[in-house]
Amino acid sequence: MTIVVVVLLLTTVHASSFKVVHSFNSDGKDGYDPVAGLVFDAAGNLYGTTIYGGAYGMGTVFELKRTADGGWAEKILHNFNSNGRDGYNPYANLTFDANGNLYGTTCNGGLYDHGTVFELVPRVGGAWTEKVLHSFNNTDGACTYAGLILDASGNLYGTVYAGGPAGGGAVFELTLTGSDEWTERILHAFNFDEENGGYPEGSLVFDANGDLYGATRDNQSGVVFELVPVGDAHWTYNVAYRFNNKDGSDPDAPPILDAAGNLFGTTYVGGTEGNGTVFELTANGKGGWTEKVLHNFDGKDGVFVYAGLVFDTSGDLYGTAVEGGTYNHGTAYELMPTVAGSWTGKLLHTFNTKDGMYPWATLVRDAAGNLYGTTTGGGEYGYGVVFEITLQD
Question: Per the CB 3.0–4.6 Å rule, which of 28, 88, 248, 341 could disulfide with 53?
Fold first, then answer.
């Protein structure tokens, strides 16, 4: 049974302060159009990607490091090459391993021009060396918009948007099998039908049992799926929940889990207003899941909810909407659980072009609870920004 709880967000901005950390430059040399979210290293520096710009116009990997005066300084760690062999157009966020190496994906380029998985290794003196770990060849997938996750053994997991054995994208694993050699295995192939789903844009998440969860569209309204490992060489695919448009449609971001194993996520469109939703999935004890809609966006508080969610230590949820708000350039919002079991919310920021426009990416929190994200446009030069939201009591 689907339980719908409609929560109206406040349409005034309050209880937070907003600051642009970096505006991408009009000459494009430091990259532009940062669609992906950000990741912190242990020292509190930020890392991300831009789809375009850089030395060859093919996109960049960048670092933002705190300066002594409290600002941030940008450094380009990698310019994707004009010949495309190392990939180009990185849409996805980066992932650190335990040794401080960065992993990411590109939608295009590589040996077959269907995208790559790459690694960046820090060197003495501050330089980074890029290596392509895998080039997609369409038969195993084509173009990935999703970031990677690692298991305890250092294996990489991700999704490809299209191609693959059944044509509708795939879930894959990369395992380090030798000295600098990675072997790919397809865990599930999508064929984009109502039962199976297809064209996954988001990354994956592990639960405490080692099961994988993700979301994908289908030829109806989309699904949240589960992959359960069975032995060493097989994974079983299950549809955890199928959306019906009234409760949301097109879940593009991966769900996240709370401590109790409940799943929380967003849908790009659908819901009572058609502008997208925030939802919760709770295991019903019978092998299925019960959905509850926590929020239906009404346009004033956001439209097109592409990004996923992030928890704070109190169990509040934070996210962004690509459009909507006062200037129709996107919003940042917070949802808070109440004692009665419903959720209430507040609008943290509405973007106004000068401070950015179109926030596609999931937010990330630092140790102090501040939120950081990106926009693909706007800012001082119109090429996108990195921003910080400081929460206030």
Answer: 28
